[in-house]
């Protein structure tokens, strides 16, 4: 776990340095610390967006399963997965239900 954190911090530092270099060439009169702050704010905003997409997607998947969907991607396919209706109609292949 420590290696993952170290690698993540190193990647963030490298991307921050790249953002400062690119920002300094785009806005030559802006101090490096200001460009770094803007890059950090942009990184936090992107991270927040990714986390929110994961949370909303997870809630949507749970809602889908609770509402009777076969799987969480049923809206993409427009119906049951191939072969599932035949599997449900064949009594020899169905599994017994627990009381």
Automatic annotation (TrEMBL):
Domain of life: Bacteria
TM region positions: 35-56
Residues annotated as signal peptide: 1-19
UniProt-annotated stretches for the region Disordered: 80-99
Keywords recorded for this protein, A-Z: Membrane, Signal, Transmembrane, Transmembrane helix
The protein's name: Uncharacterized protein
Organism: Pseudacidovorax intermedius
